[in-house]
User: Which sequence fits this backbone?
């Protein structure tokens, strides 16, 4: 169970990506949103970074990185949703670069 997103639960899922694949899938899901909320998975039709992943992949799981991504998402509650999206995308690209995924080094600037 996630400490930062307690509404999530561990159940049977069709697929649960790990490592770089999971970060990349979260990045792609966040890219599709106009902005990100903080503190909750979903609120009034809006989503945080992890909620965006589940919006895009409702029957899939996500385990090890939920609290890490949620912590980054929630690290600046005073940001606007659009600013939060930019910050989270920047961090996800940095994380993918740190994991050795080619093509993300040049993407450092949001």
Assistant:
């Amino acid at each position: 169970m996630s400490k930062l997103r307690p509404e999530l639960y561990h159940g049977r899922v069709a697929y649960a990506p790990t490592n770089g694949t999971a970060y990349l899938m979260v990045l792609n899901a966040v890219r599709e949103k106009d902005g990100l909320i903080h503190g909750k998975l979903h609120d009034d039709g809006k989503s945080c970074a992890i909620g965006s992943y589940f919006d895009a992949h409702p029957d899939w799981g996500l385990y090890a990185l939920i609290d890490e991504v949620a912590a980054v998402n929630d690290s600046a509650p005073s940001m606007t949703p659009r600013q939060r999206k930019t910050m989270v995308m920047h961090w996800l690209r940095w994380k993918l670069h740190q994991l050795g995924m080619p093509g993300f080094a040049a993407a450092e600037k949001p």
